[in-house]
Amino acid sequence: MDLLSNLALGFSVALSPYTLMLSVIGCFLGTIIGALPGLGPSNGVAILIPITFTMGFDATQALVLLTSVYYGAMYGGRISSILLNIPGDEPALMTTLDGYPMAKQGKAGDALVISGVASFVGAFIATIFLMLLAPYIARLAYKFGPAEYFALYLLAFSTLGGIASNNQAKAAMASLIGLGIATIGQGASGTSRFTFGNLHLLDGIDFLVAIVGLFAISEVFVFIESHGKSSSIGVKLDKVTIPFRLLGQTFGTMIRGSLIGFVAGILPGAGASLGSFMAYMAEKSWVGSKGNFGKGDPRGVAAPEAGNNAAAGGALVPMLTLGVPGSGTTAVLLALLMTLNITPGPTLFTDRPEVVWGLIATLLIANFVLLAMNVPMVKVFVKILMVPPAILLPGVTMISFVGIYSLTGSYFDLLLMIGFGVLGWIFRKMDIPTVPVILGILLGSNMENALRRAMTLSDGDPSYLFSSPIAVVLWILAVVGFVAPIFMRRVIRKPQAITD
Amino acid sequence: MTGDRIFGAVMILLALGYILSASTIQVPLFPDPMGPKAFPYLIAGGVIVASLVMILRPDPEAEWPVMRTLAALVFAAVVMVAYAYAIKPLGFLVPTAIAAGILSYQLSPRPLAAALSGIGLSVGLFVLFRYALGLGLVPLPKGWLG
Amino acid sequence: MTITFRALVASAAISVFGTAAFAVECIAPANPGGGWDFTCRQIGKILYDIGQVDQPVQVTNMAGAGGGVAYSHVVGERNDDSDLIVAASSATTTRLAQNAFAGMTADQVRFVGAIAGDPGVIVVAKDSPLNTLNDLVEAVKNGEDVSFAGGSAAGGFDHLKVLQVLKAGGVDDIRAVKYIGVDGGADAITQTIGGFTTAMTGDMSEIVGFIQSGEVKALGVLTEERVPGFEDIPTAKEQGLDVVAVNWRGLYVPKGISDEQFNAWAEKLQAVADSAEWQEAMAANGLAPFTKVGSDFQSWVDDVVAETVVLSKEIGVIQ
Q1: Residues A305, A259: contact at Cβ < 8 Å?
Q2: Yes or no, beta carbons of A347 and C190 under 8 Å apart
Q3: How does pLDDT run across A52-64, given as a tens digit for each residue?
Q4: Pick from A176, A418, A422: which is nearest to B46 by CB?
Q5: A176 Cβ partners below 8 Å, 6+ apart?
Q6: Which of A318, B14, B27, B105 is 20 to 30 Å from the Cα of C211, by its Cα?
Q7: pTM across the whole model
Q8: Which of C1, C180, C194 is opposite residue A143, by nearest beta carbon?
Q9: Which residues of chain B does C176 touch, with a Cβ-Cβ cutoff of 8 Å?
Q10: Would I find Signal among this entry's keywords (chain C) (predicted)?
């Protein structure tokens, strides 16, 4: 009953004509952004945040628009994976393994439709689970004091670090750099630190500046370095029909992929990359030697697409209920919420039910909009893929500049953004993940405050940090999350570092 | 190899500077057993440990670009910095056309196409931002048109 | 550095957001959505609706340094602009008293009036053994493990409220009182209901829902009289603790305007306070009436700033 009334509240927000229109626009924009080579959900949403904010949308509207962009970009990313063999973001990586071979065999249309439907199934199942699960997690609110929050943040860094890089030292380094940046400015204590008498730094470094620099500007440098060449050869798309027989055959795959993906997504810090990876590997061993994986097996498209989208939905659970993002894109969404003065966490469900349930209803609607939009319009989106980088990337740069400038009105922030762009390029060269940097900037002051509050309440007794069962469990998970990948890596060699 | 080691060494120096700077933070008197210095110290300690790991067990060397490419990247960054300073006094249209044109040329060295991309992006984005999104951008320097 | 920064913010605000000539401008020193933004938008709208100004009031958001960016802009660039009003609250004067605006002081602008207040309140979890503010004071005196959570930083307004109450109750060593500043009133309540802290200190509007649902019990409000709608909560004064702490919502204007212009603003503000529209806006946002305008308000602010300085020195926020 509670669930139904909550959902009714959500739909009353999401079904207003204006919000619905924003959702459709968001899905469309998102699909385009996702389809463009070099742009994925994270940097796509990142460059849009400042602009959305300047346009004066209220919290719910901005959230609806940008989550629609997020979902749309995940759909769009698959178009470049299948046709160009270029994944828009890391979770789409697994889709290229069988999607591109299918396209080369002249079955590009089939692959696109299968991945579209699989995405829908994955996202839909995840949204249903999110809806059912979220209220229970929200009740944890009263069990989380300073010690529990500190352990939770630690867990976020250790698990995200574990998945984000092949080298734990580099992942830790990235987190620590982010945390260090977060100490700049006047924190909760009112003491100004590391400002060197500079008023610009009094409020600290805006995480939007860091996100746009690290994700969007660094992309420009990467492309200039490769002289704008894209090494892959595009595959032509002739006709798109709906392959009902294939869809029927892969339906079981989609359900399995969705369930695996959702569980992977819920783990704080794991996210969509792990979801698509696990769904693909599980399906491959489920099918066994009868499969044709890696050479154009439709199940090799259906499983990771369902897993990827289900994990994206699952990743919203820890982001909304605990304030801990599970992937680069959810970190960007967390930044969005914090910009809108909404602090995700256990109290969000009681404080701002219209935001949470409006978002959930929007996700349900966005799934249908995307399915309806994508199958007939796939040829339009394919055309967009042909925008040459020489136009696309200068465009991305200018949008980033205008977005940040209109938000903060400060040269200093533009220079910082360029600086983060250079840093992002160096980090990518050195295989240092950038997502933990963002996470550090986002969560740094919360983490420090949690620790300081714990020490205030316990008169400086460190054992207070381990004084509740929840805290102890979180500490154990954090240590395991940091150490386990070192051993797992010896068993499974990842194709490349996952940076989402 | 060398890349990781240099990075580690630079980070150790930065961490030491950070500790030095943290030690001068003014500490308020009301009760907070940790104070504003302890967390920075913890971070700096972590950075030093991670740096040492990078120095002692570096990854295989990344492929760094040749001098010419590096120069192109530095030039792109300089163009962006100049653009950041130009957009306010010179308005949106002219600096955007020039900066976008240069970046476009760097990605695909065909002068005419790059110039057209620059002008197209400048005008197109201006129309988009000003009229579709309602941002108050200034098109040209003050006194030219307003 | 400061000068270029001011010029930059001023010009950016004008070029990016555009300024209509001759209209009244209200600066909200924060991003859209917060209390200052609300003050500017509501007062601006009502001023126009009731005919006190003849053009719509233009609201400019100038976030930064907890209001410090807007403050330095007004002091440095707009010191004689009689068409400028700026949203302010207790946080503004607390920060000025604690020298958080890089050396600028409260006497560099004129505080023209407050037209609403958010009553200070102290609450405990519903199963707490404490029932009155005096129980709380006694517990602290007896050295029990008492801790407070509030929505502002340590040394901020919520923290000072508790210290004022304890001091009025005869607690000498107020530096030893444990206070944690969390992210807003709702979080502070959650920490208190969860048993991590003994009591929560905050503004009434932040916690109305929790009081109504019975999850917390209010030990006292820090107002002159009981708050309409919450008549069963006693004031601190009734309990023998002479403390009034209200988070006022109001405006300041530049220092350099004439007394006539200052008084004209005071009258306009009084007209807003008396309007039915404002009464509705207050009720919808959990605010209580608290009207002080003109030189009355200025001298009240001077007293509050002086008190805050004394208290802040005592706990060591400032030397």
Answers
A1: no
A2: yes
A3: 766 667 777 888 8
A4: A176
A5: A440, B43, B46, B47, B50
A6: A318
A7: 0.77
A8: C194
A9: 31
A10: yes
